[in-house]
Amino acid sequence: MKKIDKYILLKFLGTFVLSISLIIIIVIVFDVSEKIENFVSKKAPLKEIIFDHYMNFIPYFANLFSPLFTFIAVIFFTSRMAARSEIVAILSNGISFWRMLFPYFIAASIIALGSLVLNSFIIPNANKTRIAFEDKYINGKYHSDKWHVHLQIEPGTFAYIEHYDNDQNFGSKFSLEKIKGRRLYYKLLSDGIKWDSIKQSWQIQNYVVRKINGDKETLIRGEKLDTVIALHPRDFGRKASSIETMTTPRLNQYINEEKAKGTPNLELFEIEKHKRIAMPFATFILTLIGVSLSSRKVRGGIGMHIGIGLVISFSYILFMQVSATFAASGQVSPFIAVWIPNLLYSILGYYLVKTAPK
């Protein structure tokens, strides 16, 4: 690397860290002022507030807005370089515009790789502690009140629960059917099913089992039956929170398991899976756009560049949210919905590079 590469690299990373640190401090101040009443009324220990909540909130927030602050950092320090004619000096010394982009993409790679690791492994584990703290001291315990739940818990095995209450870990009017081909060969009907957290199994109450073998049928009745089936109380939990606490390997495994069960409405999980890769990739796109916009002198200087940059970055975020909404409703494939903003803004970035002063 040349001296100019190191200069741009340090400027990029330094501006990025400084800008995101300042906004995190501001956000924490506002968050404390909003939640201080909950902390005091529920007697949340200071140690838990700092280490369980805010120490896990910081990486979550920083990663959430890292593409935006990457863009702001690029716009800010590149505009200053252009205003001081440093960009002109670089290009007039025989360095091509594409070669000048090299240190920018090194810095973008560092940020994108860090975001990918945070997304995939660190933040999901941190979210477990953060969400548990919020449920205890801010939101209150999550209550599931699901009616008429149909699940395929294994290939050919279908379960039905009329009503499930997660406070009691109890489901009323439980039935289990096993089908081979088109033939029903096992059916269980019961008044209810309750989770035994010590045995890690379900206790079925007041049940009737019907076994069918050809022309023969067998009925078995009983009051209690302890059994292990491919069903867990977490399957009735809050979907949004469960997504946030899954590492990427666990998320992929969960999606495959639920598809095998025939579980509908997995779009939110699919969107999250693709966003964990698409958002770090957006770092490169926004870096390219930022350099192309701010490498020329314009009337209004840095303020004009930052204004245009904010419009583009917020339009990107808005586009991502709108397309994700369409995917969540099942109107668009999650893969297409998540990646199409990157594709369109990549085209915009390439156009801006082609028209940038060389």
- State the major sheet: 6 strands, antiparallel
Give the low-pLDDT segments: none
Total number of helices: 10
Morphology: elongated
Count the beta strands. 6
Radius of gyration: 27 Å
Give the structural class. alpha+beta
- Beta-strand fraction estimate: 15-25%
Distance between the termini: 21 Å
- Total domain modules: 2
Strand and helix order: HHHHHEEEEEEHHHHH
User: Order of strands side by side in the largest beta sheet?
Assistant: 1-2-3-4-5-6
Helix share of residues?
Answer: 55-70%
Average predicted confidence as pLDDT: 88
Keywords summarizing the entry:
single chain, 358 residues, 62% helix
Structural notes for this entry:
This protein is α+β, with helices and mostly antiparallel strands and 358 residues long. It has two domains: 227 residues, no CATH class; 91 residues, no CATH class. 62% of the residues lie in helices and 19% in strands. The chain has ten helices and six strands. It has a six-stranded antiparallel sheet. α2 packs antiparallel against α5 and α7 packs across α8. The longest helix is centred in the first third of the chain and has 41 residues. The two termini are 21 Å apart. The model has no long low-confidence stretch (mean pLDDT 88).
